[in-house]
Every structure is written in C-alpha cells, then in structure tokens.
Specification:
The chain folds into four domains: 82 residues, OB fold (Dihydrolipoamide Acetyltransferase, E2P) (Beta Barrel), CATH 2.40.50; 158 residues, 3-Layer(aba) Sandwich (Rossmann fold), CATH 3.40.50.300; 58 residues, Probable gtpase engc, domain 3 (Ribonucleotide Reductase Protein R1, domain 1, Orthogonal Bundle), CATH 1.10.40.50; 27 residues. Helix content is 31%, strand content 21%. The strands form three sheets. A six-stranded mixed beta sheet has the order 10-9-8-11-13-12, with helices on both faces. Helix 4 links the parallel strand 9 and strand 10. Helix 3 crosses helix 9. The structure holds guanosine-5'-triphosphate (GTP), magnesium ion and zinc ion (ZN). Magnesium ion binds next to helix 6.
C-alpha cells in the first residue's frame, strides 16, 4: 500500500483528485511511493518524492513515454536503483507536432500556461496566437506575460494591440522578469496545488521568471541586439517549487512546431472565426474569395491568415505517412504531365 502524505506532496502539486488517482495506481509493490517527474535526461528521469529528488528509470514494461509533470509510482529495487512502475493518466497534456507530424509531449498535469513574450523585438502577434492554440487545445488556462517592461518602448500600445486582436478575454500582464514584485503580479496563478508551465521563444525570459518565482538557479542567457533572439540557453524542461506554493515548469524555447490539435480543438483559440463562419453562405467556406463569406471582412486579416496556416499544418499532420507519400507521388505525376505538355507546346517532341 502506498502512503499519501498530503502535506509532503502538496509542494510538488498534489491535489485531492490526484491523490485519489494515485491510490488507484497502487500495485502493492514493496516500498513504493508516489512521486512527480521533474526532469528528463537521456539516461535517467529525475523524480521528486516531496522529500527529495532522486534519479530513476522507467520499468521497460511501463509502455509510455514520460513527461515532466507526470505523477508516477516509484520504488527502490534491490540493486539500489529507483524504478518507475506506474504512471497516472495525465489530467492535461500539452503537446506539439514536429514538421514531420510526430507528436511530442511537452508537459503534463499543468493548470496554467504563462505565454512569455518580450516587449522588445520578440513581440509577435502571430506567435502568441500559435501558443494560444497549443495551450487552449489542451484545455489549459493561458495567461500572456509580457517581459522586459523596464527596457521596452510602447508597452501600452503593444498590450492594446493584443487586446484588439484577440476576441476573448485572456489575462495580459507586463512585467520586469528580474524584479521580485513579479511574484505578486502573478500571485493568483501561483497558489499551492497549482502547476504552471512557461512557454515562449528563446530569450523571452522564462528562466529569469523561474528564478524569481522559485529561487532556483536556472541559467539565463543574453539576446541578439537586432532581433532580440535568445541563444537557446535552456535545453531541458524542469519543474521547480515556487515560493508561493505552486510548481513551475521552465522549458526551452521551441524552434519550429505546430500545435497538437485537430480542426475542432484549434477552433477553441479561434472561436471568433468559428462563430462568424456559421453565417458564411457555404458551409465549407475557407474564407478566401468565396461569395457570401461572413468572416473575411470582419476578422483581422493577419489573424485569419495565421489561422488558415495552422489549419493547413494540422490537416497535413493528420495525414498518415502513407497518405503523404501518396500525395507527393500524385503531385509528381501532375508535375511531370505539365512539364511534358510544356515541352510539346514548345515543339520539343
Ligand atoms: N531588463 C530585462 N531583462 C530581461 C527580462 N526578462 C529577461 N531578461 C533578460 O533576457 C535574457 C534572456 O532571458 P532568459 O530567461 O535566459 O530567456 P529564456 O526564455 O529562458 O530563453 P531560453 O532558455 O533560451 O529559451 C537574459 O539576459 C535576461 O536577463 C526583463 O523583464 N527585463
Ligand atoms: Mg531558459
Ligand atoms: Zn467564409
């Protein structure tokens, strides 16, 4: 029987619901204990028991890839190694798709995602919409955190631009990530039992925020002068305990990615488009140049284009590898035929 010490596990994110789920996972293994995955390296998985962190390995039979944020059952084996024998089905999963369409789990069991973006040249409305899509598809609450308030210009205008562009109310705060007072600005998302994840491009200030909120010592890096791009200083995801009682997951800036969503879940972040689209003349209107479109002239043009771009990516990701090969082959045939006709026209045959 595993023992669940609520007070001990609370600082690593335990809630009454999670406690219940963990008890159901109990497989009556001697000395087993509940723990949370706080970092994953190639050779080992760092789990936290509430008391301390220890390196563990997943039992070969576990059958699933673990992610930071997972709740697991671990036990010390006779060879003095910790083994993970069970994993709680995550409550939330934030995942992305690679260019090839592969799904990659980023973090699990998070309540809130702080979408971190610099008010310097990192500021980009399309990118914030992309992060909103990944997070809202996962049913995680988004908060937009704009950093570098202390050094940026036009802060109020930039906040207004976001408000104008997004249809629904999403909390937006501007902060100096280096300043202690940031913890009180974010306090409502940092209470005990909460887990938050920081997402945003390299150099946005995710590790700087982690250090202020959790008194951790995550490495931070400078940014390039011209475009404010970071140097990919953070390389792994890791969970830390905040001073306010919540858990915070620092992540590396993502390079190129698509949200892990289908058409329906993408619609959560773009429900303004979905609602208007019910008035388009054609049910399958793509809002390009179809007559009677109720979306095209109302929604911000750049927002609509961003939505259409992500929709194309999602459709491509949903194709199986075989369908993709098939489609490429079809295009090849068409191209060949077109080239042939062109040559015929030129009288080359
Ligand atoms: N002045 C000021 N500098 C900041 C602020 N936030 C971050 N920085 C600086 O921006 C640089 C990048 O910050 P990091 O915290 O390393 O960025 P990151 O998001 O963790 O980047 P990656 O780990 O590469 O994904 C560092 O030099 C920070 O000191 C801020 O609000 N104000
Ligand atoms: Mg970092
Ligand atoms: Zn339309």
């Amino acid at each position: 029987m595993i023992d669940i010490d609520f007070d001990l596990l609370r600082p690593i994110g335990l809630t009454p619901y999670i406690a219940q789920q963990l008890l159901q996972l109990d497989m009556d293994i001697a000395d087993a204990f509940p723990a949370r995955v706080i970092e994953i390296q190639r050779e080992w998985i760092l789990v936290h028991s509430g008391d301390c962190a220890c390196r563990a390995r997943a039992l070969p039979g576990l059958g699933v890839a673990l992610a930071v944020g997972d709740w697991v059952i671990a036990a010390l084996r006779p060879n003095n190694e910790y083994w993970i024998s069970g994993r709680m089905e995550p409550i939330t999963e934030v995942a992305r798709r690679s260019h090839e369409g592969n799904r990659q789990l980023l973090v699990t069991n998070v309540d809130t995602a702080l979408l971190v973006m610099g008010l310097d040249n990192d500021f980009n409305l399309r990118r914030i919409e992309r992060y909103l899509a990944i997070v809202q598809a996962a049913q995680v609450t988004p908060v937009i955190v704009l950093t570098k308030q202390d050094i940026a210009t036009g802060v109020a205008e930039k906040m207004e631009q976001i408000k104008q562009r997004l249809p629904v109310h999403i909390p937006i705060v501007a902060v100096n990530a280096l300043c202690e007072s940031t913890a009180s600005i974010l306090a409502q998302w940092l209470s005990p039992g909460q887990t938050i994840v920081l997402l945003g491009s390299s150099g946005a200030g995710k590790s700087t925020l982690t250090n202020i909120l959790a008194s951790s010592t995550q490495k931070t890096g400078g940014v390039r002068k011209g475009d404010s791009r970071g140097r990919h200083t953070t390389t792994t995801r890791s969970l830390h305990q905040c001073k306010n009682g919540a858990c915070i997951i620092d992540t590396p800036g993502l390079r190129s990615w698509s949200p892990d969503a289908d058409e329906e879940s993408l619609g959560i972040a773009f429900d303004d488009i979905g609602t208007l689209a019910t008035n388009c003349r054609f049910r399958n209107c793509e809002h390009n140049d179809e007559p009677g479109c109720a979306v095209r002239d109302v929604v911000d043009k750049d927002r609509l284009q961003n939505y259409q771009k992500m929709l194309r990516e999602i459709r491509r990701n949903q194709q199986t590898a075989l369908e993709r090969i098939d489609e490429r082959a079809k295009w090849k045939v068409l191209h060949k035929a077109a080239a042939m006709r062109a040559r015929e026209k030129r009288g080359e045959y």
